[in-house]
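Q: How would the structure tokens look for this protein?
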Amino acid sequence: MFNRHAVVSLVFSLWFVSAAAHGQNSTASRPAPLERYLPKETIACVDVPRPGELLHSAASGALFSNLQQLPEYKKAMKEGEGLKLLAGLAAFRVAAGVDFMDAIDKVSGRGFVAALLPPGEKQGWFRFPEVLMIARGDGHDSIINIRNSLATFAGLRADGEWVADKVKIVPQVFQKLGAVEIVKSDKTGCFAVAGDVTVITSSLPLMLETLSRIEKGGESLADSIHFAPAAFLLEGSDAFAWLDVDKYAADVNDEFKKKERKLEPAAALLFGGIQQSLVDSKWLAASLHFTDRALSMRVLTSALPGIARETFLPEIVSTANVHVPRYAGSLTMRRDINAFWKDHEGLVAGELDAEFAKFNSTAGTIFGVKRMDEDVFPKLSPIAQFVFARQTFGELAAAPKIKLPAIAMVLQARGADAKENIKIGDGFRRAFQTAVALSAADAAQKGRPALGLNEESVGRVKLTYATFPEPTENEGEAIYYNFSPAFFSYGKHIAIASTRELAKDLIATLDASKPDASKPDASKPDASKPDASKPDASKPDASKPYASSALDGLDAAGRDISEMLAQNADAIIANEVLEKGKDKKTAERELRTFVELLSLISNVKFEITAAADGFDGALEIEWNSAPTAAGGPASRPARVDR
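A: Here is the predicted structure in token form.
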């Protein structure tokens, strides 16, 4: 039914892995950090303060409970690897006398840390570092009992003694710890239990050094000037990771900081600052925190981009309200394209300078100006928002076979003068019209349906859009009927959308969030109502935008995305069958499972802000209280902006 050695390897691996929800006793006092036992030369480490508690909480949490309700999970636990895992856990309980999670709690309930150390020998540009793992448990006797049970189960011990041809013993005696039995294997390194601390290392010298530090103390990672600034993330987190970038580059990957940093123009504008921060940082740190309904993660860098700093750290401009009907997500990015254009030499390869000059001239002609860097870029605020929404296809006789989400880009003019903003908007409108005309000319040459320009008034806003001609009987399902490109300018806002429907929704949303002088000022207290000056946290604020101060912000709704996949099920399955050779039932099962898993995710948010000495990235994943059937209704609580 199962291989004993494989099961033991799995158990030992899971022993030191924690992915779970925050438990009830997470505020209990914790002994001195296990980083005190790691050498100062440590390259990277992962710290999990309470692995056993977290695994117990995971097993009873909402996410795992929802996973257990999925048909594919139930099926997986009745056959193949799932059945082997259950059999292995049952065998573990018989051998150890306790179930797996109780064993985790006894061996590492008070902390676990894994570390990478400089390799002993240098071989090539990548050198495998040494490995050190330390766990603190309930007590020496219970740890030894579990260790012996596992070793006997694996065939490493027999009749209370180690099997000589599989392991060898290196006895070392320490004054405060008594006799510490070091078990050494040529393939798996060394294993020892010193009091309530379990140590696993990749080499005997590293084991002896670690046991000496546990007994006598001495300089450790906790004293490192690169570790101390990030250590505060460890407090209160469910898991913590840290990397010394300089040591990693020097001892493991010689090429890390030597690689060419200059990117293609688009990639440099979008990611150049983040890339520089990662490479120039002395250290990187991350922390994880779990609750019954969400997972959150923070990542800190220790350097801000030195080149083109103004591009990636512009002034903060208020975001537009983009929560349109059928909202599936949005992306906010703050980049000063004017500053990027001036300082691009530090981010983009020199041979691309000619491409910049060509773009400056060609795009200027399309916009009806002389130069983009003089007449357009300086007049744009350093912010761009992208909004995604599901389509209804209500204006089409037949919906396309492949149904794509609508997407819009919202820019903002920099100035406060209304006439100047109208002028800027008109320039973008001309560029939009020119682009549609060029597209139509190209389509005509190639025998494809061509876009035709139209205009309409939506309230006081002029909407310019383009549509394809009415489809023939054989064309109705063509993918290009997902698009009816549209443009409008509204006050400071300049928007280009992939569909007329989304453009109209954006106009309505922006109009709804615009202050109305005829209505009472909601910011002033109403004496006739109690606590009128205090906001009601239970109600969403439709005028408050997402990511109001983040440099970058991503917001995605899992259920809406899963619905869009379900809408395209037939096309996706056909592609899997034709392109990858899968049988139809397998393709259907895999897609259904993926859609069901995705439907468990309620919302995903990611933000990057500027910290004192680097970037601070924050990720939050919220899951639903119950799974949603694929393609089912996307009902969820009202969105609350943050």
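Residues 516 and 522 are 10 Å apart (CA to CA).

Confidence is low (pLDDT under 50) at residues 1-30, 517-548, 629-642.

Upvote if useful.
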